[in-house]
Amino acid sequence: MTATVALVLRRGRLLGSPATGELVDIAMDGGYITAIGPRLAVTGAQEIDVQGQLVSPPFVESHIHLDSALTAGQPRWNESGTLFEGIAIWSDRKQSLTLADVQERAIAALKMQARQGVLFVRSHADVSEPNFTPLKALLAVREAVKDWITVQVVAFPQDGIYSSPGNAERMEEALKLGADAVGGIPHYELTREDGVKSVQYGFDLAEKYDRLVDIHCDEIDDDQSRFLEVVAAEAIRRNMGHRVTASHTTAFGSYNNAYAFKLMGFVKRAGINFVANPLINLTLQGRGDTYPKRRGLTRVKELWQQGQNVSLGSDCIQDPWYSLGTGNLLEVASVAVHGCQMTGRDQLEACYAMITENGARTLNLAGNYGLAVGQPANVITLDTTDEIAAIRDRATVCTVISRGVPLVTTVPAQTTWHRDPGNLS
Ligand code: FE2
């Protein structure tokens, strides 16, 4: 008699297995993966035959702003395409925020991502406003969606911590309200000294409240914006590297090589995580350049080559900073391939890892991520054969299983020729 489990996924091609390798079944029960192997002798109360589709752990969105998602054009379009016009537009849009407004847009964005295979999301919440509407809304969303998608919320001081009275106190209050991580934006503080102080304050809060750190760091073309060294130094001194993320770090792409090489050693020693957001930073940065025009990306390839954990994020879905975006992380990986010139075979596969396992490291999901027996049963299947084809084709995510239960399925688009192409002239 064969054992019965809640769900069996039949005939999947396991991520990383050779094209000629055997297809595998994945058994899931009680929300966990209980067995993986060819032709498992188990019966599922529900069985899904994926007919050779690629089976992957879910995508991880390691950097997004759900509070501003789906507001592009409100109250006006970002015509200059710059970070600073985006901040000004958001400042106006914030005046009309309500809890319901933020929650509805955030959940709509999460559903867009979940149907495309994303089951873990780190979102920043703007805490520069006295009423905490974005933070309270996203904390409520985190709770409301927890059965099907995991959301982390970062207390993000969009307007700076020391730029106006009360913001520093609001950061601490945000942690008391339940934010998972401390944010920062040192390059937007009024002075270099304030920027340094803001990073140190963020680390102090993270230690005091036992939270993660994720700082918007040097998201500017200014080659003199050097707060990454401060983040690395604090991480080294406090031995917190794996709990610390430096997001964006686009100025790293503008530093002279002598400084950049020195900094590479510091960040390696610190062991911090990096998040690059190629969609937005390729369009946002370099706006002050004529030609040659900088790409505005951090040194993704070089960080990856030295073994640093680098993940990729969407950053924005249709908001004042980036009017496009659908939350599709395969698109993000594809744009990273181009923008970071990561076209080698290993490099292409690395870009897939940057939206899966590397993202899981950034989010500190240790022990709760991956296709292995005993792990939570979060599995996606794609209409493709391997990672490279998935990025190339923006493969359709056909099945999304969350906590051992099917969440959403999508049928790939089908094309029908009505004449023989060979005879078309
Ligand atoms: Fe961001």
Short description:
By secondary structure, the chain is of the alpha/beta class.
Q: Could you explain how this protein is built, in words?
A:
It is a single chain. The model has no long low-confidence stretch (mean pLDDT 96). Strands 1, 2, 3, 4, 5, 14, 15 and 16 form an 8-stranded mixed sheet that branches. It contains 13 helices and 16 strands. The N and C termini lie far apart (61 Å). It has 425 residues and is of the alpha/beta class. The protein is 33% helix and 22% strand. Bound molecules: fe (ii) ion. Fe (ii) ion binds at residues 63, 65, 124, 216, 247, 315.
CATH class of the largest domain: Alpha Beta
Write out the distinct hetero groups bound to the structure.
fe (ii) ion
The secondary-structure class comes to alpha/beta
Q: Please tell me how large the radius of gyration is.
A: 22 Å
Question: What summary fits the major beta sheet?
Answer: 8 strands, mixed
- The total count of strands amounts to 16
- Give the terminus-to-terminus CA distance: 61 Å
Query: In the CATH hierarchy, what is the superfamily of the largest domain?
Result: Metal-dependent hydrolases
Residue stretches low in confidence (pLDDT < 50, at least 5 long) are none
**Would you give the CATH topology of the largest domain?**
TIM Barrel
- Helix amount: 25-40%
